[in-house]
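User: Hi! Is it possible to get a structure for several chains at once, not just one? Here's what I have:
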Amino acid sequence: MIKVENLTKKYGDFTAVNDISFVSQPGRVTGFLGPNGAGKSTSMRMMVGLTKADRGSVTIGGHNYMDIPNPGQHVGVLLDASAQHAGRTGREVLALSAATMGLPASRVDEMLHLVSLTDNEAKRRVKNYSLGMRQRLGIANALMGDPSVLILDEPANGLDPAGIRWMRGLLKGYADRGGTVLLSSHLLHEVQMIADDLVMIGRGEIVAQGTPEELLRDSGTFFRALEADQLVTALAENGIEATPVADGFRTDAEPVQVGKVAAERQITLVELKLADGGLEDLFLELTAETQRETYTEGADK
Amino acid sequence: MSTATAPVQAGDPGYIDISESHRPSFLRLVGVEIRKMTDTKAGLWLLIVIGAVTVIINAAFLIWGPDDLTFNDFLQFSGMPQGILLPVLAVLLVTQEWGQRTGLVTFSLVPHRGRVLVAKLAAAIVFVLAAFAVAVLIATLLTPISGASDGWDGVSVGWLSRSILALVIGAVWGYAFGAALLNSAFAIVSYFAVPMVVSIVTAIWTSAQEKLLWFDLSTSSTRLFESDSLSGEEWAQIGTGVLLWVALPLAIGVWRILRAEIK
Ligand SMILES: Nc1ncnc2c1ncn2[C@@H]1O[C@H](COP(=O)(O)OP(=O)(O)OP(=O)(O)O)[C@@H](O)[C@H]1O
Ligand SMILES: [Mg+2]
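Assistant: Yes, the chains can be modeled jointly so their relative placement is included. Here is the combined structure:
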């Protein structure tokens, strides 16, 4: 379990992380989601003592990271898969970590196998690795000490769709066995697929947190029906306003309210679900606020 | 998701029991640091070059040099390349964590950075001792072959220790520059350029030569390789040189590394 409380980091006048608090629960995958420069990596570095926080605290399993005698055996960390010595072989990278933690060399082979790096690939130097292979190596490194907490910065970055599916399975299984997983991403779809809980951060501040369902709840309901016009009228009679969206309708009411009205009037619903795009909108709003796109448009005249 | 503020305690679901967790021993960390110097092409080649040059320079002097070379002479021959290359090795031990950004992993696994720094320093000294052992071995083998009648003259524990001290000072000096600058190229260039500038100043500004010896560590420390013992003043000059060129950058480097953001 990772507990972040009032964590703050300033670089001069600029506040990179501003008073963030959240909990990453055991048995769950928590997605740490935010656009570029939101402060995800900075927060994660503070969790493991690589960056000193200006204010606030982080405890992992009830401890300060610095107080854990052999942290690699309790907290698996992947902060940047490219941050490896280009001249070392993949196997050697893992072997050094195993040696530091005091694990047997056989553990290296287990990890290589787990992340599907072949013997041949493990003998290559890291500079000849593809991005995805580096990412796998980094994940192997994080899992090496059989930790109960994982902190992964953009672990899916560079993985192909099959790789992402593999990682989702790996992390889900890990969480199901009671592990705590915190992973960051700037891609909503990626996180939505894997995460049980979401923490959304923008410009150093947490703007939303909860399960994807909780976050979607406010986004309303999407429905399609055979007798669509009848249903819209019936809803209006019940004080529920619906607006046409794509090939269906959107309303602020809960799905169950729409379903009830449809049932009363014996209307055939074809589709009834939480509206898509609620999270997406929220996320894009965040991204828009950082106005990176406007800057680039202005730059290339 | 709860944001309750009570600290997580033993027995709580998310609590991690660390009572069986033991921090990596210092010896293990030194072993890892030594390994880091041998598992990359750059590091391995540097070690091979140090060994090869030591052998070659001694062999060359044995074949083409004067006839009556002594143990002292051979050890001094080894001291030249080793005095230049061991500091480079010490620089790389520190700076590779930044240049290659491996510090992210190293300092995640051992968050108390001071332990890693001391382990690296110890590793540098282990390399010095190993290099010196090779030098002694070579000198021991070559002295009888060279056939000087007074081949073993002047060999004393004091002198051997001073030679080791000279090599250690050089290595720590490189280490200190590496730590202060955290960049291989910068540190190596400064390590060689700074003493050179001091020597040039010394050569030009002849009237101040005596005084400059108090700052010119590369000159004052070469006295350590000579077999006759040093005067109190010479020791003091080495002392001030070490303070200025080794202790000061080392203090700056340690301060910097302990505080720096690793990213
Ligand atoms: N040393 C520093 N000095 C000044 N600003 C910094 C420093 N380090 C980070 N920042 C700023 O802090 C902000 C947060 O950076 P961070 O790397 O945490 O973002 P991120 O959420 O990980 O983004 P990304 O998705 O691109 O990885 C950025 O605006 C960055 O420019
Ligand atoms: Mg980042």
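Chain B has one domain: 26-259. The pocket of adenosine-5'-triphosphate (ligand 1) is lined by residues A 11, 14, 16, 34, 36-42, 186 (CB under 6 Å).

User: Great, thank you!
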